[in-house]
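Page 42, continued from yesterday. The earlier attempt failed because a stray header line got pasted into the input along with the sequence. Redoing it now with the clean sequence only.
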Amino acid sequence: MQSESHAAGVGTATMTSSPFSVLDDAASYAAAVEEFLAAPSSTTVPVWTGGRADLAASVERAVSLYGEVSRPVARTYGIVLRPETLPAGVAALIAPCARTWLAEDELGPALLDALWARQADGATGTDTTDGAGEGGVYSLLIAGLYEHFTVDLIWPLVRAAARRPEVRLTFLTGRDAASLAWFTAKQYVHTASDVRELGMYTGVDRGLSHSGIQLRDERGVETSDVKAELLGTRWRRLFLQGHGKDDSLNLADFTICGLNEAVGRDASQIAPICATTGLCYKPMDKLIQLRDVRAAEVVLSSCNNSPFADAAVYDPKYQLVLNAVDGTAKDIVGAITVHDSGRAENDAWAEAALAHASSVTALNTSIGMSEAFPAYVHFGMGDDAGVAPEPPDKAPEPLLLTTAARLTAYLAGGLLSPNSPLRPRLGKLATKIENQVSRRDLAVHRDRTATVRSLMDDLQSLDMAVATQYTKDPDNELSNSFAYFGDRSRIDKASITHIRCQCGRPAERYIRRSLVPTALDTEGVVCTRCGDVSFRLPDAPALQVHTEEVAVQGTTQQVKVTVREARPGILRLGLFFAAYGRQECTITPDLRKVRIGAGGEGEAEFTLTLAPDMSCQGYYMTAFAVQDLAVSIARRNFGVLPAS
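This time it went through. C-alpha cells are written below.
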C-alpha cells in the first residue's frame, strides 16, 4: 500500500511504503499477527479492518504519519476487560503491551495499593524500560472494548491514580474489535521523523502565543480557514479546545465532528440533531471529521469528549473520542467529564509539547490546582520521553489576598458610610485585585513583577489617603474599626497571653476572631492600669509610644514611636492627643513617612508642645500606623502638672 498524495507545505509527505498490512478476514489476521510477533523484526504491522471501509481509509491516511515498526514499550501491568469478547488476533497483538497481565477481577479500589506493594517487593524484576523501578514509578494499561469502560469500574481507578504520581495509567479501546485492532496496531509504529508540526487551536482563549507552535487563538479561528489548515497538515501533536459535548467541539463556526457515517446507529440512544434532520447546528461546509485529520497525537480539551460508555450523552456513532480512535492518532488525550481548563492548561500543554513530554501529565498537573478530580485521560501508549518544565506557582501573592480581605471588610459592611471619600478608591482597587487573583490572570501574567509593583503603588497611595483622614480628624470612621470588628467577633480563648504592659503592670494580649466577612480578626492588649493599650490586625505593624509619663505646663516633650513586625517598605506613622486636650497642645509633624527595614522595624520622633495654661489632669496620646490598608494604634497615658 502506498501513501496518498498530499498538498504542498507542511502537509507534504515523501512517498513511502506503508508500515501497515491490511486484512479483512479475522482468521488471516490472526495468522498474520502470530507471524508478526514471532519474527525478529518486521516492516509492517497487521491491521484487521473487519470489512470497514472507514478503517481502511484511515490506514491509508496514516501512512504519511508513521515510519519505523517495533514493539511498544511494555507497561508494567495490564488488564484486559472482558477478554472473551476479543478475537484471537486482537488479543495476541495486545499481549506484548504489558509485562505482567492481571486478572480482570483484580481491577478494584485496592488495586493500586497492591501494585505498590509489588513494586516495593521488587516483584517485577529489574526491567525499567517503562520507568518501573525508578523511584517506584510503574505503569498500568487497561485494554478492551469501549462498551466495557464504565463509570463504576474505571472512575475509581482514574481518581486513585491521579493522587499517586508514581502511577502512569493509559487505555487501549475501540468501538468494536476491528477499531481496537487498528488502535493497537498504531502503538507498534513510530511517528515519522519529518512529521514535526505542533498545533493549538482554541475557540475560547485569546491573546496567547508560543513560538514553535502553529497557533490559532479565539480571534484566529474566527478569521482563518481552520478546515483547510487542519486537514492540510501532518501533525505530530494537535491540541483542540472549544465548547462542545461528546459529539463535537466548536472552533468559532468550525466544528470538529465525531460522527462516523460508516458505523451503525443505535436508535435506542440519544443522538445529536443531525441524526434526524441531516443538518448540523453549525455551517455544514465547516464541519471537520476528526478521523480525517492526520495527527499522531490529538488532545481534545472540551468537556465530556471522552465519557465513560455508560455516562455518554450520545450514541457511540457520534463520539469524538471513538472517531479519533478510528482515525490516524496513536495517542489521544481526552476529558472524561466537565472541567474548567484555560490559559494555565494551554500553557502547560504547549511547554510539554515543545519538550516532547507527556500531554496528560502536564494537563492534569495544571488543572489539579483548581479541580477536585482528574480531568484528562490518555488513550494510547505514547513515546514521550521528555520532561516538561515544572509548572509555575499559580497561587496569588499573599499580599493580594490580605488586601482583598481588608477591602471586603471595609466596603461590604457598615464601617464606612456610603458617601465616604475612601469608598471610590477602595472599590477601584477591589475590582482590580479580584481580576488579578483569577486563574487566567495568574496564567497570563506569569511574571508577577509588574502586578506586585502596581499593588504596592496602589497601597502606598491609599495608605496615605487613610493616614490623611486621621490627621484631619482622628475620630474618623476608620477609628471605630476595632470596636466595629470586635462587636462582630468572639475572643479566641487559646490566644490569650499574659504579658507585661509598657508601664510594668500585668496585661493580656488576645485575638478576636471575626464571625462574618465584613469584619476582620483583631489583636488587642489590655492593661490593668492603662486600659486598652493597643489594637492591630494580625500581620499588621505593632507600635509602642515612648515618652515621659508626666510633663509640666508650657514644656516641650519628645515622643518616640517604635514599629515592629511591619512589612519591609514604606509605612505612614502619626500621633494625636486625647480629644479633650487637643486644643491645648500641638504635635509636629502630624505625619511621618517611615522606611521599614528587612527586620520589620522602624521608628520616628514627634514633638509635643504643651500650652502654658493647659489644664492639669490625666490624658493619653495615640500613635497610629497605616500599612497595606491596615491601621494599628497604640496608646500611652500622659499627665500634665502645674508649672509652679
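Notes: The radius of gyration is 35 Å.
Reminder to self: strip header lines before submitting.
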